[in-house]
Amino acid sequence: MKKGELIAEFAKRTEMSAAAANGAVNTLIAIITERLKKGDTVGITGFGTFAVAKRAARKGRNPATGEAIKIAASKTPKFSAGATLKAAVNPKKK
User: Fold this and answer.
1) CB 54 within 8 A of CB 75
2) Is residue 16 within 8 Å of residue 10, measured between CB atoms?
3) Of 46, 52, 51, 57, which is closest to residue 83 (Cα–Cα)?
4) DSSP 38
5) For the segment 17-33, what is each residue's pLDDT rounded down to a tens digit?
6) Phi, psi of 51 (to 5 degrees)
7) Which of 29, 56, 26, 54 is nearest to 39 (CA)?
8) Does 40-89 carry CATH code 4.10.520.10?
């Protein structure tokens, strides 16, 4: 599902206009992004938690030339699924 499809489905389920649904989805994404930029975590009960993970500087290798390179330290967004989401994706078999 792409963002446009998500917005269309959101509009359909909430009976909002497509423009209003687009605004709501974009606002949610903006809020999560802003909080992660500040270093906060965003938890949505039952769905999951968005957080920022730190990656240490390390040595790597250029696959084309085999030359050793330095990879700088960085931050990356991380998502951990909540129990309800995990259970929905992996239903128990009887």
Assistant:
1) yes
2) yes
3) 46
4) T
5) 999 999 999 999 999 99
6) -145, 175
7) 54
8) yes
